[in-house]
């Protein structure tokens, strides 16, 4: 009997070509349609492991860890300087899901520099920012803004220590004036001091102290007026606007002035004084 031979069933050739094209493990440079290129490790046809990516449109380079096609782990991102034609590192640190996440250092085009924690590509956590004018902020960040507790040091030596919200001084804080030997301690709201106490602080060693020290103050206590002494400072609290006939409703008296006459007068008590004080 004649023997009938049937052709062996095999997949189309493009299936085999596709299997060979699948990238897994270490590969030499792979060029993409848009001109980008990648050299490094792959897993299931995705960049995974150690590798270097070069973007043709910007000339930027990322070299570091990858995870399932995204930058994840430790790596550095560099851009090409159009003037010197040399690569300049912009960010060095940790990445999460293709964004800056964890601890790292970022250099801005204007020369500013941030060292600290990141989340979803934004400064969040604890970090230190070097500004172009010489100021330095170190403290807590949230959504790319100082938020929480932090210290701002200015080029002239002054510094603020205290609360921050949305990039502005907010809440209890202390503002030091080393050149004058004074300290302002109080409450800030949106960068504006609302109330507080001004005291002499290291006045003897200050390079440019004020002409006269803050006056000594006697503590009074009445039914309508209370005051307390903080070193060479005066803090007065009024129960209502009627307690002060001049209409100043303040918790602290801070700038320099001189008042003569009755204060704190009402149906129960009357106080007359003549004393240089400070007020806001």
From TrEMBL:
InterPro entries listed in its UniProt record: MORN (IPR003409), MORN3 (IPR052472)
Superkingdom, natural source: Eukaryota
GO cellular component, one term: acrosomal vesicle
Keyword Repeat set for record: yes
Alphabetical list of Gene3D superfamilies matching this protein: Histone H3 K4-specific methyltransferase SET7/9 N-terminal domain (2.20.110.10)
Main location: cytoplasm
Pfam families xref list: MORN
Cellular localisation: Cytoplasmic vesicle, Secretory vesicle, Acrosome
Protein name: MORN repeat-containing protein 3
